[in-house]
Structures are given as structure tokens and as C-alpha cells.
Design the sequence.
């Protein structure tokens, strides 16, 4: 490893005498070992992660793209980085193209057969009820048809079949509360979810000699329904899901439905609510997503012949200024290689059902902390270190896409900044500690980071793999990958992310594991330090080696 420019770190001798270094760290050169020790001490003893988490999650709360909460949280974060001594912190605008939206106040009650409070979340970009409204509930189930080849596979109706169904039920839904769909039976498994990767599994996963796994990635929405895998012929003239959804929205509007109620389809009271896909409050009726337990109860009562009367008071508002959103940017300027940039970050926006703690306030807090650590211990980076907290990730990586396009372009059509970019680190899978990294670049790039971070095996860090994928999706590091730039994503201990907090009303400050976040911040601080101080840029694909862009999805 190259000798780096000397940096001033107070009380170095006392620090090294009092700090027990892992064996792998001792293999590093003396200056790097000194810096790594200081990173660990600062990250463990003076961490600001939970302070940042409190403000992002508790004070500013849900941070839906285009909302006042999001803008105010971003402004606070920029001020905080300025107070830490960053050389620059600002909000950089990009065009969202839709007004913002906020849920102001809402209540939902069962009035009959027994008074009770309902648990639900309002679907974003839907209108309010204009005061309390009460009416009987009805349940509608859109028609589907079993495939001839496999009756377990249900297929969509044709236009004629859907229109006939709407004509049949329109008198029964007018002026009512409409529950859309059969209630789900949720398998109540009480086995605890895997919270930690076993060390041996993590080591195998990030060993470059281990063959890459086959099959699709795991995660939310990865399951397959009954009968899947059996080939069936497309149903002639069947509508697709979007066509059905658009016609259902219009049907409910035309028939003066008071409130549409969707089921969350999650257990243990969890609710996951996204948005009206049109972002236009005039095209849908007031819509809520109700927890499985309340939805099922209401449907069972109606099926048994017991009338159910519900009351909702839903107040929402649109925010015209939300058509412009912002990325929060903070910088520690470099010295002799100032025009070369290392970036790190995550997305600041969240869904509106909770306070977006694990998705992804903790990612922003961790990466802000990693940069803060380097500033606090006196590192004078050769390259500029830039923190980015993105907006619009939940609507399709919009903020990071806009930023990459403006600043870097693509490998096929680069800007002047493209050649000066040295990597972007991203974290966005909950509160679990970072266990490994995946980098878009040649194997040599992975080797640089793998060797640099070997001293952090005691924190559970297992290694770094290289990737050739330019597919867009998942999280903001893929915005860089798609452009042909080295995006570096973190694999984390799962804890309870996908099965509990991911996009649900349970995503709050209480779900954060402080020690894990501290470990991740220390690891990223060391990684950023390595790239900031090396003589050479991080190895990248040459123009002749650049993987081709994947074909656009139909």
C-alpha cells in the first residue's frame, strides 16, 4: 500500500497505546494503522448517528418525496454537516414533476355491529373525504378465470367481462365503503426471522473464488403463487393489471364510492401503503390500506350476513412546490486531487406510513457519520469526499438518476466529470451492519477494497465482490452502475428488514441497532479514506471492456 500524506491526529501515541488493534490491522503500514485506530475511536466514542436519526425520523417524520417534511429534513441535514465543518453543504434541485402530498389527519371507525377503531394508512396522492363520512361497507371481488392448462393459475378478464361485472355491481357500491378483494389468509409463522448472517456464510458469499449464485435475488415480492411454473397460454383479449386498475378507479369515481379500502396482506398489524400511480388526486376516490386483521373481520361479518357500517374522516393536501425536489449534498474538499470525487450516501425520502427509520434514514445517518469521522480526526483528503442523500428513491431512484445524468452522463455519452469519479458507496437495507460490498468494476477494484478493509473482520466485514451488471433497480448505487460508473452497494445483516420494517408502518426509530450502525460507519469511513488517499484512481472498466446496457424492459 502506498505511503499517504501525513495527517495530524491528536494524541496519536496515547491512542495507539490505549487501543487494542486487530491482528490484520497491524499488517497495514503505520500511517494507515494510525488512521484506522482513530476512526474506530471516534466512531465508537463520539458517534452522532443517533442524534441524526432522532431528527430525521422523530422530528421530521415521514419524508415522502415532494413533501414539506422531506425538504425540512434535508435542510436540517445540510445545516448539520455545515456545523461539523464540511466545506460545502447544500440542496441541489431536480424536477420531480408532480405536486407533493401529505396526510394531514385521518380517523377510521367501525360503527356497527360494534364500535371499534380501525388501523390503516392512506394511499399517497389520494384525496380526502371532505369531512367525516359514514356508510355501509360492501366487498367486491374482480372476476378472474382459471387457466385451462392449470386451474390454480387465475387469469384476468376481457374488457367485455369486466364491463359486465361493473354493470352488475354498480347499484350496490354507490355511496358505500368498498373493500376491494378477498381477505387474505396469512400464514402465522412464529419462527424468528434470520437476524444475522453466520460468519462462515458471509465469508463464503464474499469469497471471489466462490461461484456466483444462480437464480433471482431474494427480498420482498420474491415469492411465487400456487401453480407458478406451469406454462399456460395467454388468455385471448385479457386485460393487463394496469388497464384493470385504471378502469376500477374510474368506476369507483363514477359511482360516488365514499372510500376504497385495500388490504395490506401482511401479518401482525403491519400496513404497507404506496401511492396512486397517476399522482393525480382527481382520478381516484379516497383510498386506504387496512391491516389484515381489520379487513378480514369486516369481510367475515358481511359474509355472515351482518351489516357493517364504517366512518372515515380523511384530510390530505397537495403541495404545489413539490414538483421540484432536492438531493442533500455535503462535501469535504480534497487537496492535490480535489477535482476527483468519492461519493457516499443513501436515500433520505421515505414512505408516509411511518418515519422511515430503517428505510432509509439510518443509511443517510451512517454515511454522514462516516464522513464526519474523517473530518473530526483531522484527515486531509487528497480527493473530494461528497455525501449525497437522495430524494425520490421510492418512486424509482429519481433523485440519483437526475444527479448522475446532470453531473456524469454515461459511459456512452460522458460529461467532463465522468473521468474524475472514483466510486459511490451506498447503504439501504435496514439497520444491520455491513457484511460485504459489491462493486461495479473489474476484479482489481474489488481487490483494492477487500485488502483495505481486511482489518475490519472483527466487525463482521467479510469481503468485496466485483459485478458487471448495469441493470437499474433496487437502490441508488445502480444509478451509477447503469451509467458505467463504480457504484458500490452494501450487503447487511437482515435483522428484521424485509419481513417487518420494509415500507411498513413499523419502520420507526425503535428498530435501529446503534452498535450495527456504528460498525458500518467505521467500515465506510475506512473505505472512503482508502479511495481518498490512493495515488491511483479506483480501477474501472476501460471503454473497450464496458459491459453493454441491458435491453429496456417491455
Sequence:
Amino acid at each position: 500500500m502506498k505511503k499517504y500524506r501525513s495527517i495530524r491526529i491528536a494524541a496519536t501515541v496515547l491512542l495507539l497505546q490505549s487501543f487494542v488493534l486487530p491482528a490484520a490491522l497491524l499488517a497495514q503500514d503505520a500511517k494507515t494503522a494510525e488512521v484506522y485506530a482513530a476512526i474506530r475511536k471516534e466512531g465508537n466514542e463520539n458517534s452522532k448517528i443517533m442524534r441524526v436519526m432522532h431528527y430525521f425520523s422523530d422530528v421530521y417524520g415521514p419524508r415522502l418525496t415532494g413533501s414539506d417534511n422531506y425538504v425540512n429534513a434535508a435542510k436540517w441535514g445540510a445545516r448539520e454537516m455545515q456545523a461539523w465543518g464540511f466545506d460545502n453543504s447544500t440542496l441541489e434541485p431536480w424536477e420531480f414533476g408532480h405536486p407533493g402530498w401529505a396526510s394531514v389527519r385521518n380517523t377510521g371507525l367501525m360503527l356497527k355491529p360494534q364500535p371499534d377503531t380501525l388501523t390503516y394508512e392512506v394511499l399517497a396522492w389520494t384525496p380526502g373525504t371532505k369531512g367525516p363520512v359514514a356508510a355501509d361497507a360492501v366487498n367486491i371481488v374482480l372476476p378472474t378465470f382459471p387457466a385451462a392448462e392449470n386451474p390454480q393459475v387465475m387469469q384476468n378478464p376481457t374488457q367485455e367481462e369486466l364491463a359486465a361485472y361493473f354493470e352488475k355491481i354498480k347499484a350496490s357500491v354507490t355511496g358505500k365503503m368498498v373493500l376491494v378483494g378477498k381477505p387474505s389468509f396469512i400464514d402465522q409463522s412464529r419462527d424468528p426471522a434470520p437476524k444475522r448472517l453466520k460468519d462462515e456464510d458471509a465469508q463464503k458469499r464474499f469469497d471471489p473464488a466462490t461461484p456466483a449464485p444462480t437464480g433471482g435475488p431474494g427480498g420482498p415480492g420474491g415469492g411465487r403463487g400456487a401453480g407458478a411454473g406451469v406454462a399456460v397460454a395467454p388468455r385471448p383479449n385479457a386485460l393487463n393489471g394496469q388497464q384493470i386498475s385504471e378502469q376500477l378507479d374510474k368506476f369507483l369515481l363514477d359511482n360516488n364510492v365514499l372510500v376504497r379500502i385495500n388490504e395490506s396482506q401482511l401479518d401482525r398489524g403491519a400496513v404497507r401503503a404506496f401511492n396512486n400511480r397517476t399522482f393525480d388526486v382527481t382520478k381516484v376516490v379516497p383510498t386506504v390500506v387496512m391491516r389484515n386483521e381489520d379487513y378480514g373481520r369486516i369481510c367475515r361479518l358481511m359474509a355472515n350476513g351482518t351489516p357493517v357500517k364504517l366512518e372515515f374522516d380523511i384530510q390530505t393536501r397537495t403541495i404545489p412546490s413539490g414538483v421540484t425536489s432536492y438531493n442533500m449534498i455535503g462535501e469535504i474538499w480534497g487537496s492535490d486531487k480535489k477535482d476527483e470525487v468519492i461519493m457516499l450516501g443513501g436515500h433520505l425520502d421515505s414512505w408516509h406510513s411511518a418515519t422511515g427509520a430503517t428505510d432509509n434514514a439510518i443509511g443517510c445517518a451512517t454515511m454522514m457519520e462516516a464522513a464526519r469521522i474523517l473530518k473530526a480526526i483531522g484527515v486531509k483528503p487528497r480527493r473530494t469526499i461528497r455525501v449525497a442523500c437522495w430524494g425520490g428513491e421510492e418512486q424509482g431512484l429519481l433523485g440519483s438518476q437526475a444527479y448522475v445524468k446532470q453531473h456524469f452522463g454515461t459511459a456512452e455519452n460522458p460529461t467532463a466529470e465522468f473521468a474524475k469519479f472514483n466510486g459511490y458507496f451506498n447503504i439501504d437495507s435496514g439497520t444491520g451492519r455491513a457484511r460485504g460490498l459489491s462493486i461495479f468494476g473489474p476484479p482489481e477494484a474489488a481487490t483494492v477494497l477487500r485488502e483495505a478493509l481486511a482489518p475490519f473482520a472483527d466487525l463482521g466485514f467479510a469481503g468485496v465482490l466485483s459485478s458487471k451488471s448495469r441493470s437499474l433497480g433496487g437502490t441508488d448505487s445502480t444509478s451509477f452502475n447503469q451509467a458505467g460508473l463504480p457504484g458500490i452497494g452494501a450487503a447487511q445483516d437482515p435483522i428484521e428488514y424485509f419481513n417487518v420494517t420494509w415500507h411498513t408502518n413499523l419502520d420507526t426509530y425503535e428498530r435501529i441497532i446503534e452498535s450495527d450502525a456504528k460498525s458500518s460507519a467505521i467500515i465506510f469511513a475506512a473505505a472512503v479514506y482508502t479511495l481518498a488517499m490512493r495515488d491511483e484512481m479506483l480501477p474501472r472498466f476501460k471503454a473497450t471492456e464496458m459491459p453493454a446496457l441491458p435491453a429496456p424492459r417491455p
About this structure: Residues 149 and 232 are 6 Å apart (CA to CA). The longest strand covers residues 100-112.
